[in-house]
Automatic annotation (TrEMBL), chain A:
Gene Ontology cellular component terms for the protein in this record: plasma membrane
Cellular location(s): Cell membrane
Keyword annotations from UniProtKB, A to Z: Cell membrane, Membrane, Transmembrane, Transmembrane helix
Domain of life: Bacteria
Keyword Transmembrane helix assigned: yes
The name this protein goes by in its record: Nucleoside ABC transporter membrane protein
Organism field: Loktanella atrilutea
Single GO term (MF): transmembrane transporter activity
Membrane topology: Multi-pass membrane protein
From TrEMBL, chain B:
Swiss-Prot/TrEMBL keywords: Cell membrane, Membrane, Transmembrane, Transmembrane helix
Family matches, as InterPro entries: ABC_transp_permease
A molecular function GO annotation: transmembrane transporter activity
Membrane-topology annotation of the record: Multi-pass membrane protein
Membrane spanning residue stretches: 12-29, 62-84, 91-113, 158-175, 254-271, 291-310
GO cellular component: plasma membrane
Record localization: Cell membrane
Main location, first listed in the record: membrane
A Pfam match: BPD_transp_2
Name of protein: Nucleoside ABC transporter membrane protein
Length: 373, 322
């Protein structure tokens, strides 16, 4: 029997971890001579106070939903996919190849094709480590880390070579074809007299991300495959005994994971930059780890955590603009969230468990011992 | 390629291999004791920053070195508490430490020096300066041996020699002392160590502590010997290359030296594309050289060239009783 009620596990622990991370971040802000309350106000104002701010917050959140889902589904199979970064780089390559060379009559077709391209490239980059884990026993964490670096080198190679337009000095591809322009929130929601989300990069791929959450939820809890993935994650030996092939689960769950990480590229490469540049992923693959941990590997949790990190990212940019706090503060907060929700989970959990146990004992008095005992 | 160019290339390989070697041996202690550590990168970075900052402020590089070791040890303590005391996920803890270091170093550097997340340039006694070994100048003109001694062996900073001494020392500790035997045992079968009445927690904390000290030296080397000051993200993936080298070396001290020297040579070659062009007659993409350590590691890890078997209890927290 679980010691804690479910709501405590799902809501209370992440919340306490978040508060701990926030408190420590406040200490850091105090230590460098700024006012944490003031900083929080600037962050909220800058990321949630206007449709412009929301446009950025949701743009970042879209990236993090994809990478967070990617890490989450791998977590369900007890795989730690730390290679979201590399898979997203390859996803960008897939998007670029689709958008550079195929003329599309309408953006919706382009979006479908680019999503497929991104997913295939991302999944392809994840399948190799998955296969090596399943068949050769090489540790997936190490291999996916190595693949991040190999991906970076590969992209670097392509962007200074084959993909760079002739005459250009910058390591980037040319502009994508015009038919691939995705409608931004500004184009979608502005009316004739009020312009909303002016200049913000949020675009239609946000809704693709939400759809991905629903699909992944259905996949994990409503399909046979999802059941097998979860069974494998809980106990490999039991899953094997039940006739579930470990190789199949590792390869399939990792390729779904890689596909999701790769699909991030429809947002940042196709939706925002409209060309492929070096370092387009900007660490979003790693933030996926924090998002998945915070969201307890549940698609809805991932969605909320992604919005939270979107807020932190946009807020952090505003902070760097208005105060002397550098943007890297967000990296610190991210690290603290990963630390408390991931590695120090037991530190938060153990006292809470004791508390709930004590409460339950108090509520239910011990049965009287019979004389025979 | 003439002898002098070759020696210069090897010299630069040694200089670039040193931080890799120190971090690799650091990882060796930790992983041999059963604690995975992908936080080598973060610990090096934190040490690089604090050593440069303190060396600049005090003007003494040795105090800087101590401060760097301190910073690295602090992160090691977090890793130890998370993965040993609270039996958390060691990999996630390592990831957190890497980000913590990447963020905090820039935030603190910015508020301390206000130079865009860097420390000021170090000079004079605030840096480790090259040491000319005895007779290097006198022997310089002796053919073959002279240049090898002068160019390659002499003229490094103190930490390079420290790193080279640490390899046999580690070999001795690991295979010839009681502590080393226990350290290896705790990474293979902690229950047996516990049954023998030796503290698993104590041994693992000791290993994580040694790892912290060595990462501290590696980081200090980056900022105060290889370069003159701290710059943002200056560890540049070296912690991960060290991890790769550790697997390449199959968790053994001497192979660690060869693996890091090889990876150092690859880095040195990536800096001199003209040399490859001249020697091989065709140019090799520097990106390929950059990626080669990682590709080699994947190949080794996949068991295509000899099997790399990690310590058996690696990554698993030890629970004393069920």
């Amino acid at each position: 029997m679980d010691v804690m009620p479910k709501w405590a596990d799902v809501v209370l622990i992440p919340l306490i971890s978040l508060l701990l991370a926030a408190a420590l971040s406040a200490v850091v802000i105090l230590a460098i001579g700024e006012n944490p309350w003031n900083a929080l106000k600037i962050m909220v104002e800058g990321s949630l106070g206007s449709t412009y701010g929301w446009g950025y917050t949701l743009y970042y959140a879209t990236n993090f939903i994809f990478t967070g889902l990617a890490v989450a589904i791998a977590f369900h199979a007890r795989m730690f996919n730390i290679g979201g970064e590399g898979q997203a780089v390859l996803g960008g390559l897939g998007v670029a190849l689709v958008c550079l060379y195929i003329p599309f009559p309408h953006w919706s077709l382009a979006l479908v094709a680019a999503s497929v391209g991104a997913a295939i490239f991302g999944a392809g980059w994840a399948i190799i480590p998955a296969y090596l884990q399943a068949k050769r026993g090489s540790h997936i964490v190490i291999t996916t880390i190595m693949f991040n670096f190999i991906a970076a080198a590969l992209l670097n190679y392509l962007l200074v070579g084959a993909l760079k337009p002739a005459g250009s000095m910058e390591p980037a591809t040319g502009k994508f074809l015009p038919g691939t322009h995705l409608p931004s929130f500004q184009e979608m929601f502005s009316t004739a007299d009020t312009v909303l989300f002016r200049g913000a990069p949020a675009n239609v791929s946000f809704f693709v991300a939400i759809a991905a959450c629903v699909v992944i939820w259905a996949l994990i809890w409503r399909t046979r495959l999802g059941y097998e993935i979860r069974a494998f994650g809980h106990s490999e030996s039991a899953a094997k005994y039940a006739g579930i092939s470990p190789t199949k689960i590792i390869v399939i769950s990792m390729s779904i994971s890689g596909a999701l990480a790769g699909m991030m590229a429809i947002n940042n490469v196709m939706g925002e930059a409209e060309r492929l540049v070096l370092n387009a992923v900007e660490g979003a693959g790693f933030i996926g780890i924090a998002v998945a941990l915070m969201g307890r590997s549940h698609p809805f949790g991932v969605f909320l955590a992604a919005i939270l990190f979107g807020f932190l990212y946009q807020g952090g940019a505003e902070l760097a603009l208005w105060t002397s706090i550098p943007r890297e503060l967000i990296v610190v907060i991210q690290a603290l969230v990963i630390l408390f929700t991931g590695a120090l989970d037991n530190m938060v959990r153990m006292p809470l468990e004791r508390f709930f146990l004590a409460r339950r004992r108090a509520a239910k008095p011990k049965p009287k011992l019979t004389p025979a005992e | 390629m003439d002898l002098l160019t070759l020696l210069q290339l090897l010299d630069s390989a040694v200089r670039l291999a040193t931080p890799l070697l120190l971090a690799c041996i650091a990882g060796l202690y930790s992983e041999r004791a059963g604690i995975f550590d992908i936080g080598l990168e973060g610990k090096m970075l934190a040490a690089a920053f604090l050593s440069a900052a303190v060396a600049y402020t005090t003007g003494n590089v040795w105090i800087g070195l101590l401060a760097g070791i301190g910073a690295s040890l602090l992160l090691s303590a977090i890793h130890g508490i998370a993965s040993i005391t609270f039996r958390g996920n060691q990999l996630i803890s390592g990831v957190a430490i890497n980000f913590l270091a990447a963020g905090l170093t820039v935030v603190i550097a910015q508020s301390w020096f206000a130079q865009g997340g860097r420390t000021p340039q170090l000079a004079g006694a605030a840096r480790f300066n090259p040491i000319t070994l005895p007779f290097a100048d006198a022997l310089r003109d002796v053919p073959v041996i002279g240049p090898i001694y002068y160019e390659l062996i002499s003229g490094h900073t103190a930490l390079v020699y420290v790193a080279l001494v640490i390899v046999p020392l580690t070999w001795w500790i690991l295979y010839a002392t009681r502590f080393g035997l226990r350290l290896r045992a705790v990474g293979e079968n902690p229950a047996a160590v516990d049954t023998a009445g030796v503290s698993v927690v104590g041994l693992r904390f000791a290993a994580v502590g040694i790892c912290g000290v060595l990462c501290g030296i590696a980081g200090a080397y980056l900022a105060t010997a290889l370069q003159a000051g701290f710059t943002k993200d200056m560890s540049a993936g070296r912690g991960y290359i060290a991890l790769a080298a550790l697997i390449f070396a199959k968790w053994k001290p001497w192979p660690c030296l060869w693996a890091t020297l090889l990876f150092g040579l690859l880095q040195a070659l990536a800096l001199r594309p003209d040399l490859i062009q001249r020697t091989l007659g065709f140019s090799v993409q520097t990106q390929l050289l950059d990626a080669l350590p990682y590709i080699l590691t994947v190949v080794i890890l996949a068991g295509f060239v000899g099997k790399a078997i990690p310590p058996r209890a690696g990554g698993e927290p030890y629970v004393k009783e069920r």
